[in-house]
Amino acid sequence: MRKIAIINQKGGTAKTTTAVNLAAALAAHDRTVLLIDMDPQGNISTWFDIVPQKSLYHVLLDETVTPEECIVPVRQNLYVLPSTKIAAQAELILTGLPGRERVLSRKLAKLGGYDFVFLDCPPSLNLLNQNAMTYADEAFIPVSMDYLALVGVKQILENLKMVREILGHEIDVSLVIPTFYDRRNRKSREVLEKLELHFNGKVTDPIRANVRLAEAASHHQTIFEYDPTSLGARDYQRLAERVLAETPSR
Amino acid sequence: MRKIAIINQKGGTAKTTTAVNLAAALAAHDRTVLLIDMDPQGNISTWFDIVPQKSLYHVLLDETVTPEECIVPVRQNLYVLPSTKIAAQAELILTGLPGRERVLSRKLAKLGGYDFVFLDCPPSLNLLNQNAMTYADEAFIPVSMDYLALVGVKQILENLKMVREILGHEIDVSLVIPTFYDRRNRKSREVLEKLELHFNGKVTDPIRANVRLAEAASHHQTIFEYDPTSLGARDYQRLAERVLAETPSR
Ligand SMILES: Nc1ncnc2c1ncn2[C@@H]1O[C@H](COP(=O)(O)OP(=O)(O)OP(=O)(O)O)[C@@H](O)[C@H]1O
Ligand SMILES: Nc1ncnc2c1ncn2[C@@H]1O[C@H](COP(=O)(O)OP(=O)(O)OP(=O)(O)O)[C@@H](O)[C@H]1O
Ligand SMILES: [Mg+2]
Ligand SMILES: [Mg+2]
Known about the structure:
The structure is a homodimer. Chain A is an alpha/beta fold. Chain A has twelve helices and seven strands. Chain A has helices at residues 15-28, 43-48, 56-61, 67-70, 87-95, 103-107, 127-135, 147-165, 186-199, 211-218, 223-226, 231-245, and strands at 2-6, 33-37, 72-75, 78-81, 116-120, 138-144, 172-179. Chain A has a seven-stranded mixed β-sheet with strand order 3-4-2-5-1-6-7, with helices on both faces. The longest helix of chain A has 19 residues, at 147-165. The mean pLDDT of chain A is 95. One magnesium ion binds next to helix 1 of chain B.
């Protein structure tokens, strides 16, 4: 079971779009995939049009609730552990708990039966993110093709280092995923070059800017349902193939 | 002195881009403007290429430090109170303090001498943002032309309501600023229509999608310095004129 945090504290770099479409592509390849929404914005629930009863908040703070009770099937082979805005309260309550950075990994210790678990992380440097980073073994980092996002990458690497050194949990960057790529735009090419220089072979083929990706969310569909021939569908399909190629066989 | 939070917990809606360019346009109109960076990402400092000595963290948590010591002039009539990544620690320390939502307004109580104070807020629902909301009297909400950002607007209104009702501080939405607008794109027009329906006269003319705005940041320039004839420069100029028209004369 691969446990992967999709994380970048810079806002709007396509974390949720990557989480949903990559998970959907892998599910279509007959892998069982769980999406955990770590973000109180609850964009995963909005995307799949689910109104959660029990959510991340209950998993973290209610000893009587198991993760399995909160998990909702949304497509074949694709499941969601949703979040709601009360998860923002979890942040304040967690602060006072012992082992506050590891509550999620304690609660999900027995969770199994999936090929992939993806955590869609909020754009922040908070305890919810630390909980995601101490549960996941790997990080995928979507980076949009802009200067402020590029500058933010250094920050993520420091956060992961902190998790390794101070919290004693091994998590590494597996993939860096360029998003909103537009090859006609010099800035896009420059940012991509810098990422490839810095991360060597970990940088995937870029996800191109494609308005169909944004439209799919408003139709509560994955890109494969909304427009399977679009650039967005092809790019996320290619990303899924790369992830599968790097996944040890079961 | 107008105290205005530029806020939206959805990531990447152009909060920082709006804060920098609107502040610059008003400074060029001979108003004195302070930009407070509430975001541990420190994108305001990155934009103006400043390496802060003292920052928001010290203002919030160090009783011996005054705000004036941390404020840096960056352009004529334009000043910055910078943030650094240690502000993320402030979040955890603030949690344990009495009156934790109002530490900023306590610390800035004597701050004066500016026509405008803008707070560039992080994309989250945390204590730093609550501190911004109990200091500011008004909120400007940049909303990008996409479905997830539109859904997120409801959340901001609830947060502001919480500040009014639970924390007893009056803060209202003054302006809703559509960003990344592309009139060729149906989604843009639809989102803009929905905003105008919901917010009546508070929705400004849109800020159009314009790559020059993104390029300006990497050159550490405002849009007026980088490309004064660009769409971005014209749109932020028009926004500044609207803000000035609605500002009681001194
Ligand atoms: N490749 C792309 N081309 C065009 N639009 C995209 C692309 N990827 C994402 N988007 C759109 O950009 C917006 C931001 O994407 P998304 O919400 O996935 O980012 P995020 O990193 O999850 O944001 P947050 O920081 O708020 O969690 C959304 O409207 C989404 O539909
Ligand atoms: N109108 C626009 N047209 C094109 N690019 C833009 C526009 N406004 C902002 N950008 C670019 O989009 C990216 C996101 O903008 P910005 O960082 O200002 O958003 P933000 O809301 O402050 O993000 P965060 O949620 O991380 O604080 C930046 O690279 C910026 O340069
Ligand atoms: Mg997201
Ligand atoms: Mg910002």
